[in-house]
Amino acid sequence: MRDPLSVLTDAFTSFVLGKVETTRLPVRTSTGQAQAVYLPTAAPGLGDSGVIIGREVYSGKGYVYDPFQLYGQQLPAPHWLVLGESGNGKSALEKTYVLRQLRFRDRQVVVLDAQGEDGVGEWNLIAQELGITPIRLDPMVANDSGIRLNPLDPAITTTGQLALLRTIIEVAMGHGLDERSGFALKVAHAHVNEHIADRQPILTDIVEQLRHPEAESAEAMNVDIDDVRAWGLDVALVLDRLVDGDLRGMFDGPTTVGIDLDAPLIVFDLSHIDRNSIAMPILMAIVGVWLEHTWIRPDRKKRIFLVEEAWHIINSPFVAQLFQRLLKFGRRLGLSFVAVVHHLSDVVDGAAAKEAAAILKMASTRTVYAQKADEARNTGRVLGLPRWAVEIIPTLTPGIAVWDVNGNVQVVKHLITERERPLVYTDRAMTESSGPSDPELEWETEQRALLMERQMNDSSQSTVA
User: Fold this and answer.
1) Cβ pair 293, 326 in contact under 8 A
2) CB-CB contact of 259 with 153 (8 Å)
3) What are the two backbone dihedrals, phi and then psi, of residue 410, each rounded to the nearest 5 degrees?
4) Are strands 135-136 and 107-113 parallel, antiparallel or unpaired?
5) Separation between Cα atoms, residue 246 and residue 240, nearest integer Å
6) pLDDT tens figures, 117-126
7) Parallel/antiparallel/unpaired status of strands 335-341 and 363-368
8) Which stretches does the entry tag as region Disordered (predicted)?
C-alpha cells in the first residue's frame, strides 16, 4: 500500500499540472529477447553474388563485391580506385581479390607489377603458383633474351600507332608536340608503314626516316626538305632513347613471339624500371595501348586490368588521355580498371588535374585505407565521402578500409584464408598485415569457392550439352 505522503504528492501534482505520471512496473527479460526492442541498424550490403572480401565492421555481415555483377544495376562503371598509405593492406587486398576472381572461368587479369625485391616482382609467387611466367621488361637483358613490345606492331591500328608515338614523345619532352614536329612525325610514320611490308616496322625505321626525310614529304606541304628534317630532329632524339638509350631493347624490335594472351593471369614485371624515372609512364603507355589492341576482345570474357603505382598514368596528361579512351572502350567489352595509388594528392594536384578528375569520375568504387587526417579530409572532399567516414579514416587499423561503392559506404575488414596467406605476404609485404585470420570466414570463403566451382561446372556442362 502506498504511503499517505505519496498519495498527497500525486494529488497536488495533478491539481497544479493537470496530469499524473504513471508508474510502470519493471520488466524482467534476457538480452536475447531485449535485442528485438533496440534493433541494430546497418547500411544494406551489395548482395551475395560475387567475390567475398571480408566482413562489414558494424554489422558483422560478409562483404561481397564484384563489379561485373553490380555493373548496370548499382554501378555506372566497373572501375575501382584503391587508396592508402603503405603498410595498411592494399597489396593483400589486390592479391586476394585477383585470386578469388580467377575462380570464375570467364575472368582474365592483367597486372602491371611495379614493385618487388630480390630481382623479381611482387606478384612472382602468385604467378608461379598458377604456372604463369611473368613478362619481365628489363632494359639490362632486353638485347639478349628479354621481352620486346613493338609500338609499331601491326596488331595496333595505324591511328593507334601514331597516337602512341606522340604520347611517348610528349611524356619524354614534358610538353605537347608543336604542329611542325607533329607533321614531321606523321609523314615519317606514314612513309615507314607504306614502304616496309616484309617485316614488322620498328622504331629504328622511324628514327632513320626523321633524320633523312624523303623529298615527297616536303613537296606535299610545299616546304623545303631541310625544314622537314629540322622539325623532326627533336622527335628523332627522343625516340633514339628507346633505340639506343636507357630503354633500349624493350621496344626497338618486333614483339616477342609466344606471349600468351589467353592465360588467366598476365603479369608485366616492371620492377626493374626506376619508378621515379620518365621511363615508367612511357612504359605504361606502351603496355596499355598494346593490350588495348591485342588483349581486349569481344569474346564475353570479363577482364581486370590492375595497375600498381597508377599515379604514373593518371598524373601524365598524355598517358591519362590514352587510358581514358581505353576505359571508355573497355567498359563496353567487360573491362574493370583497378588503379592503386598511395595519395590522392599525387594525382589531383599534378599536371594532369583535368584528366585525373575524368578518370576518378569513372571509378565508381573507391576503397580508402588509413591516411593522415589532412590527407583524409582532402580525399573526402574530392571523392564526396560522408563526414563520419572521413573522421574514421585516420583511425583505421591495417586491413580495415572505407568502401564507397557508388554511394553505398561501408567499413570493411578484409580477411585472408590460410591457403592465401603464403602467396599474399611476400618478404617485402610482411608489414602489410591484414590482421589475424578468421577461421569462420575461412570456412565461409572455402564453402563459397566450392559452390562457385560447382555452379561453373554445371554451367560448362549445360553449355556443352
Assistant:
1) no
2) no
3) -135, 155
4) unpaired
5) 10
6) 666 888 999 9
7) unpaired
8) 429-465
Let me know if 272 is exposed, middle or buried by CB neighbors in 10 A (0-12, 13-18, 19+): middle
Ranking 12-16, 97-101, 259-263 by mean pLDDT, the lowest is: 12-16
Query: Does 246 score more than 70 pLDDT?
Result: no
**Total residues belonging to the chain:** 465
3-state SS, the chain, equals CCCHHHHHHHHHHHHHHCCCCCCCCCCCCCHHHHCCCCCCCCCCCCCCCCEEEEEECCCCCEEEECHHHHECCCECCCEEEEECCCCCCHHHHHHHHHHHHCCCCCEEEEEEECCEECCEECCHHHHHHCCCCCEECCCCCCCCCCCCCCCCCCCCCHHHHHHHHHHHHHHHHCCCCCHHHHHHHHHHHHHHHHHCCCCCCCHHHHHHHHHCCCHHHHHHCCCCHHHHHHHCHHHHHHHHHHHHCCCCCCCCCCCCCCCCCCCCEEEEECCCCCCCCCHHHHHHHHHHHHHHHHCCCCCCCEEEEEECCCHHHHCCHHHHHHHHHHHHHHHCCCEEEEEEECCCHHHHCCCCHHHHHHHHHHEEEEEECCCCHHHHHHHHHHHCCCHHHHHHHHHCCCCEEEEEECCEEEEEEECCCCCCHHHHCCCCCCCCCCCCCCHHHHHHHHHHHHHHHHHHHHHHHHHHC
Rg of the chain over all Cα atoms, to the nearest angstrom: 29
Q: How many CB atoms lie within 10 A of CB 460?
A: 11
Residue 98 CA to residue 160 CA, distance in Å, equals 29
Task: For residues 217 and 392, give the distance between their C-alpha atoms in angstroms, rounded to a whole number.
Answer: 62
Q: Which cell goes with 441?
A: 570466414
Residues 435, 415: Cα–Cα separation, whole Å: 8
Classify 54-142+264-464 by CATH class: alpha beta
Query: Identity (one letter) of the amino acid at 307?
Result: V
Cross-strand pairs, 392 = none
Which neighbouring-strand residues pair with 367? 82, 403
Residue 194: φ, ψ to 5°: -80, -35
**How large is the average pLDDT for residues 298-327?**
83
